[in-house]
């Protein structure tokens, strides 16, 4: 089972206990009300009573999910960019990212569904929808003020959308099954919102399947406001039309990833008793020995960390010795890759589109070699690629304009008020794997922020990626 789904199920299990307790307390109150109705000889409103019990359990679960459970990063922060989560889900196109959006919709669906069943005033959209928005706004505000999460306008939107969908279904059922002595009436308009939502989702997921290439996780989710930024150029852009090849990779499947992990473990003389599966990642782990292997599916990159013999110092190794030891782990290093010693036991093999039959090898493998002949760390982005198609790309001048417009990943870092400007040191064409396993051209800008960082911290140059395909 996907580990994110398992996390959701665990949350539902833990929150369900609180919901069950709240439901039982409410049921006791309903029982008392039933006795009073019976004593008076009046008909008891069972539908409303059941809705009240369900609402009590729902609000307990909502309270646990949003305010009581432990939360990770992002506490005390705010996202004011509407649809940011949707764009990030589109760029990465993983189950986890889309569930983050869809579960926020589902979280408020019961509110929109149960309120109209509980009381007649909530059978008016202009009552129920503001109620859903208000509850969501209160939760987001409390999360922000208490440091229990992030204030997110995307959550306000998705929660309100969930309320709309729940309200539509409730009203559809009330119109189709109006109860004894009442006629069906006006049910068709309540199909509009659910059908529109379904069409939007079908367009998103169907459109993705019809696309020739996948999406780049490194693509910007929004354009940062960099107006007035002082850009200084050490590098000069090249004018003129440009084209570049795209390449087809060979992404891991779950099965081939498991086979790679098993072969790696045999070569390293370790075992991985635990494996954690995510959308695009498997983490092989041995918590006893401190060995961890993280393997990414779409680009076949991996990271290996070993805590065993952690005190052994890093030393310089010869290229033949390192190639032999890497081969024992089942790691392919192409002939002709540039070998370099970086210091402190770190070595690198760099391949820039080296011929490999009708294919090419591209990427970098870095490894920390220890005095005892073992590896402390191995990081690899080496991939065997098949040329696919020549495509038009942005010129460097066009890419620079997009950069100045804040349309690149990490642009938000340059929105700091203390930043005086930025110096562009270099621009190089490189490749990144997309969500369908194709390698697309990207521009990698090396940028040095200018200014005095808070606390007097020195500023260092960093690499920022901008998609190059037109």
Terminal residue distance: 38 Å
Number of helices: 10
Nearest-angstrom radius of gyration?
28 Å
Largest sheet: 14 strands, mixed
Report mean pLDDT, rounded to a whole number: 90
In a few lines, what is going on in this structure?
This protein is an alpha+beta fold and 470 residues long. The chain is 41% helix and 24% strand.
Characterise the protein shown here.
This protein is an alpha+beta fold and 470 residues long. The chain folds into 3 domains: 3-210, no CATH class; 231-241 and 395-467; 254-387, no CATH class. The protein has 10 helices and 16 strands. The chain has helices spanning 3-40, 46-68, 84-92, 95-118, 125-146, 153-176, 192-210, 254-268, 319-328, 396-404, and strands at 78-79, 151-152, 231-233, 242-248, 274-277, 281-286, 291-296, 302-306, 338-343, 346-356, 359-369, 375-380, 383-393, 419-433, 438-451, 462-467. Strands 3, 4, 5, 6, 7, 8, 9, 10, 11, 12, 13, 14, 15 and 16 form a 14-stranded mixed sheet that branches. A two-stranded parallel sheet has the order 1-2. A hairpin with a 3-residue loop joins strand 5 (274-277) and strand 6. The mean pLDDT is 90.
Layout of secondary structure:
Blueprint: H1 3-40, H2 46-68, E1 78-79, H3 84-92, H4 95-118, H5 125-146, E2 151-152, H6 153-176, H7 192-210, E3 231-233, E4 242-248, H8 254-268, E5 274-277, E6 281-286, E7 291-296, E8 302-306, H9 319-328, E9 338-343, E10 346-356, E11 359-369, E12 375-380, E13 383-393, H10 396-404, E14 419-433, E15 438-451, E16 462-467
Parallel strand pairs: 1-2, 3-14
Antiparallel strand pairs: 4-13, 4-15, 5-6, 6-7, 7-8, 8-12, 9-10, 10-11, 11-12, 11-13, 14-15, 15-16
Helix pairs in contact: 1-2, 2-4, 3-4, 4-5, 4-6, 5-6
């Amino acid at each position: 089972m996907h580990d994110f789904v398992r996390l959701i199920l665990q949350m539902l299990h833990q929150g369900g206990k609180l919901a069950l307790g709240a439901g039982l307390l409410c049921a006791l109150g309903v029982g008392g009300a039933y006795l009073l109705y019976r004593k008076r000889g009046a008909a008891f409103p069972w539908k409303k009573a059941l809705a009240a019990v369900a609402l009590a359990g729902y609000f307990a679960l909502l309270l646990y999910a949003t305010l009581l459970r432990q939360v990770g990063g992002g506490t005390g922060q705010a996202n004011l960019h509407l649809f940011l989560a949707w764009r990030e889900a589109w760029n990465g196109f993983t189950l986890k990212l889309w569930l983050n959006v869809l579960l926020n919709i589902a979280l408020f669906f019961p509110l929109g569904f149960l309120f109209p069943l509980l009381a007649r005033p909530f059978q008016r959209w202009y009552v129920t929808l503001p109620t859903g928005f208000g509850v969501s706004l209160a939760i987001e505000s409390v999360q922000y003020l208490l440091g229990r999460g992030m204030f997110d306008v995307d959550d306000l939107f998705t929660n309100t959308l969930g309320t709309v969908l729940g309200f539509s279904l409730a009203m559809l059922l009330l119109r189709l099954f109006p109860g004894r002595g009442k006629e069906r009436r006006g049910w068709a308009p309540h199909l509009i919102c659910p059908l529109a939502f379904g069409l939007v989702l079908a367009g998103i997921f169907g459109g993705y399947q019809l696309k020739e290439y996948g999406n780049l996780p490194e693509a910007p989710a929004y354009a940062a406001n960099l107006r007035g930024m002082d850009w200084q150029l050490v590098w000069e852009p090249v004018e003129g039309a440009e084209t570049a090849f795209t390449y087809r990779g060979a992404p891991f499947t779950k099965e081939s990833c498991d086979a790679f992990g098993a072969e790696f473990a045999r070569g390293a003389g370790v075992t991985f008793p635990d494996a954690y599966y995510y959308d695009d990642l498997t983490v092989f782990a041995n918590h006893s020995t401190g060995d961890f292997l993280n393997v990414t599916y779409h680009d076949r990159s991996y990271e290996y960390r070993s805590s065993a013999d952690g005190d052994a110092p890093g030393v310089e190794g010869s290229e033949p010795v390192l190639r032999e030891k890497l081969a024992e782990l089942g790691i392919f290093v192409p002939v002709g890759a540039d070998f370099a010693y970086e210091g402190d036991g770190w070595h690198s093999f760099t391949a820039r589109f080296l011929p490999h039959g009708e294919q090419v090898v591209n990427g970098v493998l870095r490894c920390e070699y220890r005095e005892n002949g073992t590896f402390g760390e191995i990081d690899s982005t080496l991939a065997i690629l098949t040329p696919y198609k020549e495509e038009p790309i942005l010129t460097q001048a066009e890419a620079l304009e997009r950069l100045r417009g804040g349309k690149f990943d990490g642009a938000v870092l340059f929105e700091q008020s203390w930043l005086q400007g930025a110096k562009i040191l270099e621009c190089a064409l490189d490749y990144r794997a997309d969500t369908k396993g194709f390698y697309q051209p990207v521009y990698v800008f090396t940028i040095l922020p200018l200014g005095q960082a808070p606390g007097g911290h020195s500023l260092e140059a960093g690499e920022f990626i901008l998609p190059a395909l037109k």
